[in-house]
Structures
1.
Amino acid sequence: MSVNIKPLEDRIVVKQLDAEQTTASGLVIPDTAKEKPQEGEVVAIGPGRFNEDGDGRVPMDVAVGDKVIYSKYGGTEVKYAGEEFLILSARDVLAVVG
């Protein structure tokens, strides 16, 4: 997936993965009762923040295409070109899945 959003410094753009819509026993969960997903796919990354000396950038720990788990209340939700994305700091990423 390509997106025309270019995050700055150590920020990343994540496309949230859909939350599970049924329980293990087959019950359908309505939209109002669903929890916000905490998993998504990285669609864009920034160049990284500058190091303490200011002469280079700290490399990012994630890459475009990575599936990540992020902090529950981290980031800012934005709507762009009819799709919803989450822009968050790389520090809000807790783990890379798979």
Note: Residues 48 and 72 are 22 Å apart (CA to CA).
2.
Amino acid sequence: MHARLYQRPKHAMQSGRARTGEWLLEFERDDRMRADPLTGWTGSGFTAGQIQLHFPTEAAALAYAQANGLIVEVVPLGPKTLKIQAYSDNFR
């Protein structure tokens, strides 16, 4: 089974950094989503796609994946860019 491992980014709408250091492990979908003929809603029988596992470190997540025979793709966190701006720049 394939999984994706990534670090939680900082939420754009808040200035705090709570829970940004933890790592998330999500399972990749094995089958396609299909429409239910009666209701028209889309779904699949793959229930592991609804699970997110939280780990304090990348090493702990990789150890869990290796112990359970998962093929893991580690997605790196994008670079952090700061826009340095003075208050007076708002009035130019």
Note: Residues 58-67 form the longest helix (10 residues).
